[in-house]
């Protein structure tokens, strides 16, 4: 009896498990060598010839054209990590891949997948306890936040800037949007602009949008700006029905022209009389209106995107107006300064200070597109982890020290677990070891020797990581060298990697329709 289409393909049992695990391991292996401050870069070229050079795990996995459903689950681990805490994507993917590798060995030893899943989940709980034990007791102040941001960016492309100087900018930005209850991370944006050294990167107390004034005669800068945002087309009104008008004399033509001019002048006078000296509108503006407003000293930006209008509204407190007749002072937003500045072929509008200062923009400069793209990714991750650390108030040692502590505690607890589940718990610890092993390999050290030394230092000192300082790599307490990570990054990596690995390991039947 046939219950499926003849074109369907079905893979069962060990073959299905092996296929899924192999796919997951392959994805994890593709990003493993990018881990750590000495991680390698990947060059990704799409079908159109577009090139991306990065060592950011989330970007690599996002750009890869992955079709295998099990491999896609590992990509989702990185996406979840990026969405929740902003960093640790490579760590999460690598751990998930190695949990699958350990599961494959256990399956070959006739350990049932259900037993493996139970053991992994129990080990994950122990891992979370180990992370809690590694949390630094000191308060998360600006110095610690700077270390968190710098640790996140170390090894990533930062152009001519040092990770330390960028970290200070990141902390300033995060502190700027800190509230009593949380950190308004969405109020920090990163805007990139090609055409200068990365040393020109700065923090703008406000927002930056890709817009130019509607008329060359408008002021380039307005102080103490009253800002209006319009969703109005400022041009001659046209009917919805096509119509033709017969003009029999020059007087009729002049009358039509005067009527148009009067209508346009009325729009310009309404805006000028309202008291707004900076106007953003999402629709078109007739040249004659722009010219009239330029004479009145009004700075106007037309045809801006709806998302930019929403950002300006949120930042300045201006209310969007859909009918010019409804425009009044109560709808205006405020800013200390609005200015237009030219950068080569691009014009940018800067809305700074006042109400707009509730939002901040990291204005990133770089000589090439590749430089600014990588800077944008690095700063974005640093902003995320700094915000996470500030909100939670918990940081743990980086440089593989937390993973060494996790593996050590899991192995100790495994001794008290009965049955074959103990094998899975031990395997979990072995999988976690991939992080310090990879960090060691990427620095040129022998992974096995480094792992032995790290374990010994951890047992004697209580904390040990592979600390990179220039060309020197030493085994020491990462806290002493300012190498720290938010505790939530480690927790999320363990939880998401365990969830993905156990989900894949439980699949023993794959049915694919053609």
TrEMBL record:
Keywords: ATP-binding, Chaperone, Nucleotide-binding. Residues 1-20 are annotated as: Disordered. It comes from the Archaea. GO terms for molecular function: ATP binding; ATP hydrolysis activity; ATP-dependent protein folding chaperone; unfolded protein binding. InterPro entries: Chaperone_TCP-1, Chaperonin_TCP-1_CS, Cpn60/GroEL/TCP-1, GroEL-like_apical_dom_sf, GROEL-like_equatorial_sf, TCP-1-like_intermed_sf, TCP-1_chaperonin, thermosome_alpha. PANTHER family: CHAPERONIN (PTHR11353). Belongs to the TCP-1 chaperonin family. NCBIfam families: thermosome_alpha, thermosome_beta. This is Chaperonin Cpn60/TCP-1.
């Amino acid at each position: 009896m046939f219950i499926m289409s003849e074109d369907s393909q079905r893979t069962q049992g060990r073959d299905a498990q092996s296929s899924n695990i192999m796919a997951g391991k392959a994805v994890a292996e593709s990003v493993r060598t990018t881990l750590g401050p000495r991680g390698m870069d990947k060059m990704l070229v799409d079908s159109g010839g577009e090139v991306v050079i990065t060592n950011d795990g989330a970007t690599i996995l996002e750009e890869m054209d992955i079709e295998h459903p099990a491999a896609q689950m590992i990509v989702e681990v990185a996406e979840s990590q990026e969405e929740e805490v902003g960093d640790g994507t490579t760590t999460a993917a690598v751990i998930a891949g190695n949990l699958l590798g350990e599961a494959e060995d256990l399956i070959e030893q006739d350990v049932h997948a259900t037993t493996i899943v139970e053991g992994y989940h129990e080990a994950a709980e122990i891992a979370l306890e180990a992370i809690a034990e590694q949390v630094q007791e000191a308060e998360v102040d600006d110095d610690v936040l700077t270390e968190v941001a710098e640790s996140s960016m170390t090894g990533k492309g930062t152009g001519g800037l040092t990770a330390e100087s960028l970290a200070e900018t990141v902390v300033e930005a995060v502190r700027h949007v800190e509230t009593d209850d949380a950190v308004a991370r969405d109020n920090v944006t990163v805007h990139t602009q090609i055409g200068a050294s990365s040393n020109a990167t700065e923090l703008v107390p406000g927002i930056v949008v890709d817009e130019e004034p509607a008329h060359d005669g408008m002021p380039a800068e307005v102080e103490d700006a009253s800002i209006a945002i319009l969703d109005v087309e400022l041009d001659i009104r046209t009917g919805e029905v096509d119509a033709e008008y017969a003009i029999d004399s020059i007087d009729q033509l002049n009358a039509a022209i005067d009527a148009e001019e009067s209508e346009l002048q009325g729009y310009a006078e309404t805006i000028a009389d309202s008291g707004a000296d900076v106007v953003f509108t999402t629709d078109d503006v007739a040249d004659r209106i722009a010219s009239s407003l330029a004479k009145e000293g009004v700075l106007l930006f037309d045809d801006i995107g709806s998302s930019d209008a929403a950002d300006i509204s949120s930042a300045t407190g201006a209310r969007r107006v859909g009918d010019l007749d409804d425009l009044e002072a109560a709808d205006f937003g405020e800013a200390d300064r609005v200015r237009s500045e030219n950068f080569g072929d691009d014009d940018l509008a800067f809305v700074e200070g006042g109400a707009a200062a509730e939002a901040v923009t990291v204005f990133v400069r770089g000589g090439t597109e590749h430089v600014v793209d990588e800077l944008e990714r690095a700063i974005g991750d640093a902003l995320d982890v700094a915000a996470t650390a500030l909100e939670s108030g918990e940081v743990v040692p980086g440089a593989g020290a937390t993973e060494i502590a996790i593996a050590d505690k899991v192995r100790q607890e495994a001794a008290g677990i009965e049955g074959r589940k103990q094998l899975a718990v031990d395997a979990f610890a072995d999988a976690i070891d991939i992080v310090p092993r990879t960090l060691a390999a990427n620095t040129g050290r022998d992974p096995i020797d480094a792992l032995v030394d790290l374990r010994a230092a951890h047992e004697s000192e209580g904390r040990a990581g592979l600390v990179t300082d220039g060309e020197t790599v030493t085994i020491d307490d990462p806290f002493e060298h300012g190498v720290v990570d938010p505790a939530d990054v480690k927790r999320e990596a363990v939880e998401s990697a365990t969830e993905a690995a156990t989900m894949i390991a439980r699949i023993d039947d794959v049915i694919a329709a053609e």
